[in-house]
Structures are given as structure tokens and as C-alpha cells.
Amino acid sequence: MRLNSIPQEFLSPPMRCGKIICVGQNYREHIKELKGEEPEEPVIFLKPASSLIADGEVIQIPAGIGRVDHEVELALVIGSRGKDIPASSALDYVMSVAVFNDVTARDVQSRYRKAGLPWTLSKGMDSFAPMSPPLPLNRVEDIHHLDLELRVNGELRQKGNTEQMIFPPEELIAFISRYMRLEPGDIIATGTPSGVGPIRPGDLVEAEISTVGTLRNPVVDALKLG
Ligand code: MG
Questions:
Q1: Residues whose Cβ atom is located within 5 A of ion ligand 1
Q2: 30 alpha carbon to ligand 1 midpoint, in Å?
């Protein structure tokens, strides 16, 4: 597995990723397309660190799982340990930011959701967390006003701006750290704008966030990897 596109210092202790905390339903237009209701507080779920892949690596789709969707998101990489972090100093805990794709097995998620059961499997499969090389926070423009785009085979599917977040990064960090201690290497994926749609083996997924970078991942049938 090729990992050389994530800087070594990110992978080695103490910067190993311990947890990926994802935020659901953080953009109004995305909530509408999934026919959800606007949450009163952030909706949090986890992906295992084992689902993380780098720019250029392949998204593997297991056979028989139905529709799989892309979700472009701004990722925050935590640089220092913190608990009960106030929103006013939350960004001091962010070391870097990256482009993230919250790959989702949508049919699996819907099935579990309807049954009132946890849908962890739909989010946590191997390769379902592609992330670009992280860029230090001071090298990107204001993270509250960044354009996000996602293309599949060159066709524009998602377009949004981080200013459309219901809960901005500071509020997310304050909320999460009230309940879960944040540690160096943890990743927070801050939610996706509207336009989520299916990806299939043979597709090339390109996610881009202004000044942060571009994340490119080909999609393959997991069986064909051997
Ligand atoms: Mg998401």
C-alpha cells in the first residue's frame, strides 16, 4: 500500500491517527437532499483509523454492497491533546487541515438506519477515508470561507463553501472535546455540502478545497485487487 503522499511525521508517533471523528448533517442543502432535519447540536460518528488512505490510493468497493457515495469534506488534524476546549481557543488545537472524502455505503447505511441500528459498517470499510497530505493551518486561507468541489471523471458533482456549515470548526471542537478527549493525530471531518452521489469501479474521484489541495482516488472493485 502506497503511503508516501502523507508526510512521515504525520504517520509516526505521536502523530499516529487514533480516531476519525466525522460530523453528519452540517450543511443545510445536504440535509435537504437526504430528507433529514436540521440538528440542534452536532451529529457525531466515528470511522476507524484503518479506513484511512492517502492521495492516489484506491477506494475499494466490496462486492454486493449496493450504492457507494462520495462526500467531500474539510478535515481538521489535531495537534495537541485537549479536553473541554473552549470555542474561543479551539483553533489552537488544530495543527493542519486536509481534503477528506467521507466515502459512504449508502444502501447499507439506509438499511441499518431504517432498522434503528448503528450504521458504522457503512462508513468504516477499508479505504473509505481518503485524505490529502495535511497542510499547516497557517498556510491556508481562512478555513471559514473555503470553496469545496468534487468531480467524478471530470464531471462536477459537489460545490459548496465552508461558510455554509451549521456548526463551524470551533463549535465542533468545543462540542466533541466536551465528551471525547482530542489527541494529536486525531482527524475531524467537518461534514459535506450537497451533491453527494454514487461512485463505481473505474471512476476517478477528485476532491478539491481552495488553498488546501486536491485529493485524487481511483475506484476499484475490491475483488480485483487480489
Ligand atoms: Mg460526511
A1: 71, 102, 192
A2: 10
Exposed (0-12), middle (13-18) or buried (19+): which is 222, by Cβ within 10 Å?
middle
Give the cell for residue 115.
Answer: 432498522
**CA of 168 relative to ligand 1 center, distance in Å:** 15
From first to last of the 226 residues of the chain, give the pLDDT tens digit: 444 455 544 554 446 899 999 999 999 888 888 888 889 999 999 999 999 999 999 999 999 999 999 999 999 999 999 999 999 999 999 999 999 999 999 999 999 999 999 999 999 999 999 999 999 999 999 999 999 999 999 999 999 999 999 999 999 999 999 999 999 999 999 999 999 999 999 999 999 999 999 999 999 999 765 5
- Prediction pTM value: 0.92
* Cell, residue 147: 470553496
The answer as to CATH 3.90.850.10 being correct for domain 13-225 is yes
Domain boundaries, the chain: 13-225
